[in-house]
UniProtKB/TrEMBL annotation, chain A:
Residues 336-495 form the Origin recognition complex subunit 5 C-terminal domain. This is Uncharacterized protein. One of its GO terms (molecular function) is DNA replication origin binding. Belongs to the ORC5 family. The lineage of its organism: Eukaryota, Viridiplantae, Streptophyta, Embryophyta, Marchantiophyta. PANTHER family: ORIGIN RECOGNITION COMPLEX SUBUNIT 5 (PTHR12705). It comes from the Eukaryota.
Automatic annotation (TrEMBL), chain B:
This is Origin recognition complex subunit 3 winged helix C-terminal domain-containing protein. Belongs to the ORC3 family. Residues 17-360 form the Origin recognition complex subunit 3 N-terminal domain. InterPro entries: ORC3, ORC3_N, ORC_WH_C. GO terms for biological process: DNA replication initiation. Residues 32-41 have a biased composition (Basic residues). Residues 624-789 form the Origin recognition complex subunit 3 winged helix C-terminal domain. It holds the Pfam family WHD_ORC. One of its GO terms (molecular function) is DNA replication origin binding. Keywords: DNA replication, DNA-binding, Nucleus. Residues 25-50, 691-752 are annotated as: Disordered.
Length: 498, 791
């Protein structure tokens, strides 16, 4: 959840200087993080006293289960010295090392020091050396519990990301062994990860870290958390009681739930705010009835784009979400030149049809098309169906540039013929467009490059034997039909098994 | 291979053909990058020189007039360009302001949220002590979404996008906002997150830090002068970026929004589905998306056409054919502002380059009176005046009025272009108001009119049919009263500066108004003047009754309306019909008189560009394959007598052709040294002896095709050869080569002088091949070979 920045950490550390007994801390944390009592108890047990030896700890669990927040807040609350580094922000070993060192020394980047870090540290060996140096110094400065040293905690967040770095697995296991490498008894290592201990490949580590699992929230806990965040708590709790169950089946992340429930709640409030419904049993039933129709579309919505002039969900939008399929919109929404449209169609046709069909489709005779219809025995039909299914699973196939351009040219010529038949006021002029399309010029190739750059067409790795690029259409059926409609192109005529 | 001085190499050999030397005196300096085509270049060059010679045989342009033409081009083009740029700026300004406003609003609302949460946490807090306030940050998830503006750019063609973002950056910078622009080059999977972050730091902090720690950015933003200012991060072409790096980058930024007021601005070339396809749900959940759409390219084209081609006077005109070609080109290939500007600039430059008298356009633009122009024209040298009489538009007609000087005619005709243009604009505007009611879009109407103009021959101007316009004009017949009235009112506005016409339109309008009001209310008492057809008597009778009832206040309003619905059509029909007829006749007359193509007037050659072919050649390029074929079969194109027809090599071939043919002997990698040797041997047979030994010793390098062999040892040898890039010979041959190497310094001292021109020619040929995209120059790793791209 809340990965507070390092700057905050320093400040919080200072503020929370007064010592509060463990009970206070427990009370405070469980009040802030409902449903996490078990984990908080475990964590506080493991943390123990300021000078206790601390085994490497692995805190793991799904995202948004309060791992980082609880950990950091408890450390800050207890006033323990710690350094926090997220392997997401610090995306290479050097950044991780330097960030930890900076926090240990209290170094702040500024223009005066040219935004440099305290030490230049690229290798693990350097890191170990500096760590020994700094932690030793720290001991001298802040020893205040008898003759024992205060434990310094290093928190590594998002450890699972380290696996993706080059040499990541080695780094993880060396970080686990850091206490041994530095021979510092007062080094507390805490790893936070969304992946469990088995997936982190800790086999070679000398000491298995102590696992602490943060399990997913239950419905009851989710209810507690979400009501805690809302001001109109009474109305909101009614709302949650009826709507949380279907949503939590899809996702148990608090962040996601809050996001997707918010627009629905606004909808739920509407009759109440208008004064049509009062909050009694009857009213609640009415509200539920009113909201029921919106639950399904709200669940289907993965994201929404807000309009700066209007609110996020205007009435129109909801209506269109409920009564029609989301893709049934008109127009492409952006400009594609005529040539690009034909190219897209050509690529689509080429990647849907086998190349053996080209001759029948674009050749002079149309005999092959009528022939296909003759086969109608059950087994042949079954075979066709199976083939079609297989094709569908495979997805669109790639086609070489040559074939693509040949089909494009055929389509453009066809268009030329059909154009001449039309004698509308407008189409007097579009004969010129077609004449421009008839020859494959460098412009056509430029358009192909443009289409590739906006991902409407994918360029697959070129065939090693021929050395020519191959292409594949990356558009869905609705889109391509929209394109075909916009230029009055009979797409179905050209598709096998349309 | 040094590019030595090419001072004394044979000029004639280059003169034989112009493969790629189109060093025209094109004053623009801007050349369409796609226009390199060998064949077309050659063909049209010869054609064109023929054309030019036929049309303007006398041109010995004095240098001063050339300068004048350049000046005139600059003036005219400057005016057009300014017009276009102003329009684009004006169109974009609105959306830029909206984005800027949005950034402000977001910042404000974020600040509000913080205050609100602080207050709530304090009131709900355990004890409200000082400690509590430190926890009173907005709860993690509600502040975690990055405010993201999706700017839908309207078209997939990327040439305008940079210009748009330049404008946006400028606008935001002025309004106190830090802006960093990232492109897809920053988001490569190879560089990972380092790429975008490094670029970000470079642009914002103006340093290249050692590491890409976001802490640096935070530290920079904490500084006094930056504090509080929002940071806008622009990703110009989202779709081309590596999706993985992009997603990681967004997640990273979203972790820092508590410390840095970051907003994202993403340029989207396609529709809103693209962002869903591009980013995984985990990254998408971190963005709070807002939609901004730029104006559609068609609308922009419409506005620009209106402003440049119809409404303004630029002393430069395009013939209908040219405009139609351009429209077709925009529609089918490249509808962007960049492309519009480029193609107009090409027309303009071609015109001023071709036409010796075109400098008069510049005069026309600045002079204020007809007399000045006449003076200027009469001061022209005889050569120009004679040239003017040879124009096809005047040749036959001027004979009639031999007594007056040509210059006077010319000045008068030129001066009239202003009024002609004005009338043209007016008539077209009248038609387009009519088209608005007919539901025809501007583009269709404009193209339709131009097509009609292009089809109708410019010289026979009387009694021609109005073509597609006939259908449009006939719409008057079944036009309702209200739309006729509003059409006429708009006409009155359009014709405000043309007194006669305005009076005519007003007359029709007043007639119509009086007739309709009269017929509606006081039908019985006043017979309308212009009702020629007799209205039906029973309607009149009802009308009388109604008006009496109104007088006595008996009848209710709804009943009146009902009656009105029944009768008014019948009554006002007649008034309407006559007014409709009048308006129709007026428009018909206007179209006949004033809607003429720009190239129908005498002396139009001075200000009107009509060469579609040259424009076509400039805008539409050939493919590389075509260039490749033409280079190999240059004889088919050139048809010269000096070169052998059977495809044999000879020194009379053009250097580029020769070099290209020689390069065909190699695989995809061409060893430069060998290539040069064979080139030199053909160009200058004297040198042949000195290089012969070497040529024999070094067979062409073929990469990717190792000799097939079952003997492991020899295969290893083969791959070793490839690595070294220089095949190893037998011992003897190697020795020989070495001795040759030793000899070379002595030889080169003597031959160097002789070699220089050939080297220069070779370098030039190789560079030309590189420019057309047939060769790739040596790379770092192996510097002695070039790669053939078209195989």
């Amino acid at each position: 959840m809340g990965k507070k920045s390092r700057a905050d950490a320093v400040r919080l550390e200072k503020e929370a200087e007064r010592r509060i007994a463990g009970e206070d801390c427990r009370h405070f944390l469980s009040d802030r993080f409902p449903g996490r009592n078990e984990q908080i108890d475990n964590l506080l047990c493991i943390l123990g006293e300021p000078c206790d030896a601390f085994p490497p700890l692995l805190v793991y669990g799904s995202p948004a289960t309060g791992k980082t927040s609880i950990l950091r807040e408890s450390l800050s609350f207890l006033g323990r010295p710690h350094a926090y580094v997220s392997c997401r922000s610090c995306h290479c070993p050097r950044l991780v090392f330097e960030s930890i060192l900076n926090q240990l020394v209290g170094h702040v980047r500024s223009r005066a020091n040219n935004y440099a870090s305290a030490r230049r540290c690229e290798k693990l060996t350097d890191f170990v050396t500096y760590l020994v140096e700094f932690c030793g110094r720290k001991e001298l400065v802040s020893t205040n519990c008898g003759n024992l040293n205060k434990t310094v905690y290093l928190i590594f967040d998002n450890v699972e990301l380290i696996r993706g770095w080059s040499g990541g697995n080695v780094l993880i296991s060396s970080l686990l062994k850091l206490a041994d490498l530095t021979r510092l008894p007062n080094l507390g290592l805490i790893f936070v990860s969304s992946a469990g201990p088995d997936t982190l490949q800790l086999g070679s580590a000398s000491r298995e870290p102590l696992p602490l699992h943060f399990k997913d929230y239950s419905n009851e806990e989710l209810y507690q958390i979400l009501t805690k965040r809302q001001p109109h708590s009474e109305l909101y709790s009614f709302f949650l009681k009826s709507s949380l169950a279907p949503f939590s089946r899809a996702s148990r992340k608090v962040t996601e739930l809050a996001e997707s429930l918010h627009p629905l709640f606004l909808k739920y409030c509407e009759p109440f705010l208008n004064g049509k419904v009062i909050l009694n049993d009857q009213g609640k039933r009415e509200l539920y009835k009113y909201m029921e129709q919106y639950i399904q579309p709200a669940m289907g919505q993965s994201f929404s784009i807000a309009d700066p002039d209007k609110g996020v969900n205007t009435k129109q939008e909801w209506k269109s979400m409920i009564y029609s399929r989301p893709l049934a919109k008109t127009g492409l929404g952006f400009h594609l030149s005529l040539c690009s449209r034909y190219l897209l169609l050509a690529i689509y046709i080429a990647s849907r049809n086998p190349s053996t069909l080209d001759d029948a489709l674009f050749g002079s005779g149309e005999g092959a098309k009528t022939k296909r219809k003759r086969r109608s025995s059950m087994s042949a039909m079954d075979r066709d169906a199976a083939m079609m299914q297989e094709k569908q699973l495979k997805g669109p196939s790639v086609c070489p540039l040559e074939r693509l351009l040949a089909i494009f040219q055929c389509l453009a010529v066809d268009r030329n013929v059909s154009c001449e038949k039309l004698t509308d006021f407008k189409l007097d002029s579009s004969g010129e467009d077609c004449r421009q399309l008839k020859d494959v010029t460098s412009n056509v190739q430029m358009e192909l490059v443009t289409l590739t750059s906006v991902n409407l067409v994918l360029k697959s790795s070129s065939s090693p034997l021929e050395g020519l690029p191959r292409f594949r259409a990356n558009v869905d059926t609705d889109f391509i039909h929209e394109v075909a409609r916009s230029i009055c192109f009979p797409l179905d005529k050209y598709l096998l098994n349309a | 291979m040094d590019s030595g001085d090419d001072g004394d190499f044979d000029e004639n050999q280059l003169q034989a053909c112009f493969v790629l030397h189109r060093n025209r005196e094109k004053s623009t300096g801007k050349v369409c990058p796609r226009r390199k085509s060998a064949k077309k270049g050659k063909n049209s060059e010869s054609e064109k020189s023929g054309d030019v010679a036929g049309l303007y045989p006398i041109v010995e342009d004095p240098a001063s007039y050339g300068a004048l033409r350049l000046q005139a081009f600059k003036a005219v083009w400057g005016r057009i360009q300014k017009l276009i740029e102003d329009i684009v700026e004006g169109e974009n300004h609105e959306i830029f302001s909206a984005i800027q406003q949005w950034i402000c609003n977001r910042q404000f609302s974020d600040a509000q949220m913080t205050v609100y949460h602080t207050a709530r946490l304090l009131s709900n807090g355990v004890d409200g002590t000082g400690l509590e306030s430190s926890w009173a940050k907005p709860s993690a998830s509600c502040g975690k979404q990055l405010n993201t503006a999706l700017v839908f750019l309207g078209g997939v063609n990327p040439s305008d996008h940079r210009r748009t973002f330049d404008g946006l950056t400028g606008h935001l910078n002025v309004n106190k906002c830090h802006v960093a622009r990232l492109t897809s080059i920053d988001f490569l999977s190879k560089a990972g997150l380092g790429g975008p972050l490094r670029s970000l730091f470079r642009q914002l902090i103006h340093i290249i830090p050692e590491t890409t720690d976001m802490e640096i950015l935070a530290a920079w933003h904490r500084e006094v002068e930056n504090q509080g200012l929002p940071i806008a991060i622009v990703v110009e072409d989202c779709e081309s970026c590596d999706p993985k790096v992009l997603a990681e980058f967004f997640v990273l930024l979203s972790e820092w929004i508590r410390d840095l007021p970051i907003v994202l601005i993403l340029g989207m070339a396609t529709s809103d589905d693209a962002i869903r396809k591009l980013l995984p749900a985990s990254a998408l959940a971190r963005l709070h998306l807002w939609r901004f759409s730029l104006k559609a390219p068609q609308k922009l084209l419409e506005t620009i056409t209106r402003a440049v081609l119809i409404e303004s006077f630029c002393a430069f005109d395009l013939s209908p054919e040219v405009i139609l070609f351009l429209y077709g080109y925009f529609e089918s290939h490249d509808l962007t502002v960049t492309s519009i500007i480029r193609s107009l600039k090409i027309t303009c430059a071609e015109h001023f380059w071709r036409e010796p008298l075109s400098f008069l356009c510049g005069e026309l633009l600045v002079l204020n009176s007809k007399a000045d122009l006449e003076e200027k024209c009469s001061a022209l040298p005889d050569m120009f005046l004679h040239h003017a009489t040879q124009f096809s538009s005047v040749k036959g007609k001027l004979l009639l009025q031999e007594d007056e000087p040509v210059s006077k005619h010319m000045a008068a005709s030129l001066w009239d272009t202003r009024s002609h243009k004005k009338m043209w604009k007016m008539v077209f505007q009248c038609i387009s108001t009519l088209a608005k009611y007919g539901g025809i879009s501007f583009g269709d109407l404009f193209c339709g009119v131009l097509q009609w103009l292009a089809d109708s021959s410019p010289l026979s101007n009387s009694d021609q049919t109005l073509g597609p316009l006939e259908k449009l004009i006939s719409k008057f017949r079944d036009m309702s009263g209200t739309s006729l009235r509003s059409t006429l009112e708009e006409w009155r506005k359009i014709t405000l500066h043309e007194k006669e016409l305005n009076a005519e339109v007003s007359q029709i309008l007043t007639d119509f108004i009086s007739s309709s009001t009269v017929s509606e209310v006081n039908q019985a008492s006043n017979q309308p003047v212009n009702l020629r057809k007799s209205p039906s008597n029973e309607v009149e009778g009802v009308q009388v009754g109604v008006s009496q009832q109104i007088k006595h206040g008996v009848i209710s309003r709804s009943a009146l309306r009902r009656l009105g619905q029944q009768q008014c059509p019948g009554v006002s029909q007649t008034g309407l019909v006559s007014s409709n007829k009048k308006a129709e006749d007026l428009l018909r007359r206007l179209v006949r008189e004033h809607l003429k193509p720009a190239d129908s007037r005498p002396f139009h050659e001075i200000y009107c560009f009509r060469d579609v072919n040259s424009l076509k050649e400039a805008l539409i390029g050939d493919t590389r394959r075509r260039v490749h074929m033409d280079l190999l079969n240059s004889h088919n194109v050139l048809k010269c007598e000096c070169c052998p027809t059977d495809g044999e090599l000879s020194s009379s071939l053009h250097d580029t052709t020769l070099a290209y043919i020689l390069s065909q002997e190699y695989g995809d990698l061409v060893r430069i040294h060998n290539w040069y040797q064979s080139f030199a041997a053909i160009c200058d047979p004297k040198l042949q002896g000195s290089v012969k030994v070497q040529e024999e010793n070094s067979p062409p390098a073929r990469r990717g095709r190792p000799r097939k062999s079952f003997d492991l040892g020899s295969e290893e040898e083969g791959s070793a050869k490839q690595r070294r890039g220089r095949p190893r010979k037998s011992m003897d041959a190697a020795m020989e080569e070495e001795s040759e190497e030793k000899k070379r310094p002595r030889l080169s001292d003597a031959v160097a002088e002789e070699n220089a021109p050939i080297q220069a020619r070779f370098t030039r040929a190789a560079t030309e091949l590189q420019i057309v995209g047939l060769l790739q120059m040596p790379k770092k790793g192996n510097s002695d070979t070039v790669r053939r791209l078209c195989i």
